[in-house]
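[retry 2/3] SprT-like domain-containing protein: previous attempt timed out, resubmitting with same input.
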Amino acid sequence: MKKGVNKVKFKANGLIWEVQSVQRDNEKLKVKGAECLGVTYYKDLQIFLDCTLPKELFRQTVIHELIHAFSFSFGVHLVANEKTEEPVCDFMGSHLDEIYTTTNKIMAACFEKGVK
Ligand SMILES: [Zn+2]
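[retry 2/3] SprT-like domain-containing protein: success.
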């Protein structure tokens, strides 16, 4: 699979978000002078991702930013308490795939005809 600059749209609770993977030096990836792997702009409903990241880190960053976007879209945005939201996003970014795979395994075992 080839890395590159791309645009994707998705809907969360009726809000249409736009996700863009951009080059590392893109201004949108800078927050208060710091370089970020990904940034979510709530008021613009936009997410920017560094397309030069290694694939696994890129994936974790996608999940991280999507948790921000979904929590914002569904009114449980915790930006007033960044101490909580950031660790939640980091945790989900690192472990969501694992939780999902394990869930599927359990579902398949408990409902034999379930999809893997
Ligand atoms: Zn974050």
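[retry 2/3] SprT-like domain-containing protein: The radius of gyration is 16 Å.
[retry 2/3] clearing retry counter.
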